[in-house]
């Protein structure tokens, strides 16, 4: 990364993220061209996704707004293209631009939510295991071992297939994103749990924690105010990189047909559908979602990579 | 590299067959399940294996029954049929074809563990009269025995005995069958090798009893599940025949100078079924029991839009639940209710069912352009005052729900195969659900008068009278909108230009013993 | 050492047992296969008979015990979909997947190692920075998109590589190989490249990080001071020192790649285990799904245990860890 040559000064030992590193991170950010470009692009993607209902000419999830007589229109700059379908329409008469904006929204929401959920599961498990040790630690870490004995993609496929199967018909569409969030976070929490547990064990044996315990400060308090903040830095880096992974996993599941349903397509669903039109001449149905998905994951990963370099000087 | 590849192919072909070897490289959308026709109740597997195995009778180019392994037949009594077998027929392993083989095959297919039992519902037993004559006894008078026999493939008794395969493969018993991997039939082609999901190779049977119209020496059958990949393979010449080309790619394929496209509509009719139990799956009162709601549903659908856009002008809009080729069809059955969303809204309001919420249960691996069709239906229904939700998943996931009566509204296709008679749909779908009938009566309806007509037809040996009874039953089913037919789905075969003779019938089954390459 | 080895293996067995249980519980929930095994004309009576014979009417506990005892003996039953012994079925597909994964691993080493070294020693040049940037794109591109693009460019537009399948294979005992025929090798290229892309970037980044670390170390500084030529330092000393973690990661990732290959296999119609699994998922072919899960986990756990034990042999300090 370009950032690693420009950042001055030796690394301080890991301490509170905000205070010690705040200015440092900012300095590094303003001196990394790629990080700034990536952040700008990501901001644009997120903003357009958040405000999709205001920007998009059509609500692609509202079946009543889709006119199939307008199906498979090419982009406006091509012959046969029509306003307001800037990027053309798919086979349902769905405006591609609207579908992509809404699809990006789904991808981002699922990515964020599954990272948040896996953070919650993983950090809780890690803190509890590291702090209390003994039987609890053993059980939690064995569960982690079992999870790690299966590749993430396999766990995600299994969980989403089975959970969806258990939902009653009328919840299939509504519950699809929740199922994906669950599937992805269940495949990704162990990494956090292990990191946090290792860090917790280190902190647990430090004098200030021992002192707090002697003073009968409740365990919850020690965990929340003293130990947790010290585990945040490595977890934050991992979470950023996993955000990109989560988006990719969601797209992959949807591409394989076990993710978001066609009625509320994510980028992966759009690519799966568009893939069937690869040779039919309707290239816009597949190309635009592909570009958007790649762009999204690339900028997220550039930022994650940059963050790791900044916060984890050993890797530079 | 391409040149190298073709060179390698020529060399490989040259080793296997001398002279002008024509290889049919057949890319299909799915693999066959097994080499054993009795291992699985699957029409596609059966139609592929028809290249290797044969029945006593078969369908000709007009889907009429013609002699195959039997040369003639007559009824001895109401319940006994006598078949005279073709002499001089040999199995691929050289064994002679005799009456014992027919009896062994009938016994095998009607074994309690055979998944194909249902294809021979009236069978009671068979007796050998002499080496080339067999009597088949039925449980009662039954008009459709010949239709059923078209798909009962004949095995060699000695081969079955030697390989301990007298009984069909039983998944429940966890025993693999020899016939799952090996084949020995009388058909136009022999199995050379098979790697499941990858490639099955058939070679010409030079000793076939029938005068072969085909000059194909070798069939390489490759399943390519993804439609886009299949098209890529056609364009690059990796395959030179498919019976399942995606409709959106047809314009491009037609424009290809070395390919040709053959299209027509299938026998399979796609239709909508309604749950007819007092309550829906979610506990609400079932408004679909009101005829006005079903009519509102019908008026909500723009059949022109479905035909022109979703099916790309390739389907045949249907008003009847059977295709015109199926006996029992009359034109009066085929009228379509007009598209009128305002009328739909009015009918819904009258029935007190405005904004009716329900779930449409669809599959995504069974019919042509199914996913688009179901989404399109949801769009049209939403505009006409319904509040539909779509539940779409592979058939494996949906079938328990549909068969368990948990689907509010569902899509189903019916081809009346292998019987090719409207008795099939009446018995299996329209009749009240019992142990022996109405398996696909997923909505759980009962129409005693229709049931009575179907029962009369089941023993009526006079074809004209029987078809009249069936037509009457179909008309009553139509009047009450038990099922709402949408269309007969299209089929599109794409092949190399070098193929100058091929038979494409409405049952969408390739018969490559009739396929010919130009020299 | 013996104690350590035994404890690692015991641990691995425990994990495998848990996976087997999980497999059963998951698939018990997954749905009803009977409706797919029969055709349009089968009666309800016959359907119920099949359900009975498959043991689907037994209590969950009974079915579970039956599953685990059978699985322990390597008996996963018969595929619902095509009536073949599941283990044989997976065994037939295993060579296809393994050849794909090994070739992909080879490609990733051949490409990733030199790129990693280059980006480390020429750090800061415009081309190494671009390579670093490209590596991020490499980890960001979904593998199905890579596959689709490769097919589009090399099969359809250029027409120089097959778009599906394995080509001609040659049977050597129970092993089928596509490496010995020209069409088999041609068919392998695109899927292997698609699968290796992610792995290339991983190796490149790992090598770079390790190299940078080694180059900073005292012995390299000392070697430089002694006037040993640069390339000799880089390739004889530095690279050798960072090979161990690279080899470890590559070995451990073989398990991951086998699982990830299911996407590549689906796109390229590669007749391997992954495609079998995806087909089993759509078909709810429970025996195949269960067996696949157990086998993949077994490969994973076995590789991990092997690496643990190897490390413990090399570095005795690790024996008391955990």
TrEMBL record, chain A:
It is a multi-pass membrane protein. Keywords: Cell membrane, Membrane, Transmembrane, Transmembrane helix, Transport. Belongs to the binding-protein-dependent transport system permease family. It is found in: Cell membrane. InterPro entries: BP-dependent_transpt_permease (IPR050366), MetI-like (IPR000515), MetI-like_sf (IPR035906), OppC_N (IPR025966). Residues 104-304 form the ABC transmembrane type-1 domain. This is ABC transporter permease. It comes from the Bacteria. The lineage of its organism: Bacteria, Pseudomonadati, Pseudomonadota, Alphaproteobacteria, Hyphomicrobiales. The chain crosses the membrane at residues 35-56, 106-136, 148-167, 174-192, 235-256, 277-303.
TrEMBL record, chain B:
GO terms for cellular component: ATP-binding cassette (ABC) transporter complex; outer membrane-bounded periplasmic space. It is found in: Periplasm. Coiled coil: none annotated. One of its GO terms (molecular function) is peptide transmembrane transporter activity. Keywords: Signal, Transport. The keyword Signal applies. Residues 64-425 form the Solute-binding protein family domain. One of its GO terms (biological process) is peptide transport. The keyword Ion transport does not apply. Residues 1-21 form the signal peptide. Its main location: periplasm. Belongs to the bacterial solute-binding protein 5 family. This is ABC transporter substrate-binding protein.
UniProtKB/TrEMBL annotation, chain C:
It is a multi-pass membrane protein. One of its GO terms (cellular component) is plasma membrane. InterPro entries: BPD_transp_1_N, MetI-like, MetI-like_sf. Its main location: membrane. Residues 94-307 form the ABC transmembrane type-1 domain. The chain crosses the membrane at residues 12-30, 100-121, 133-164, 184-207, 242-270, 290-314. It comes from the Bacteria. It is found in: Cell membrane. Pfam families: BPD_transp_1, BPD_transp_1_N. GO terms for biological process: transmembrane transport. The keyword Zinc does not apply. Keywords: Cell membrane, Membrane, Transmembrane, Transmembrane helix, Transport. Belongs to the binding-protein-dependent transport system permease family. This is ABC transporter permease. It comes from Aminobacter carboxidus. The lineage of its organism: Bacteria, Pseudomonadati, Pseudomonadota, Alphaproteobacteria, Hyphomicrobiales.
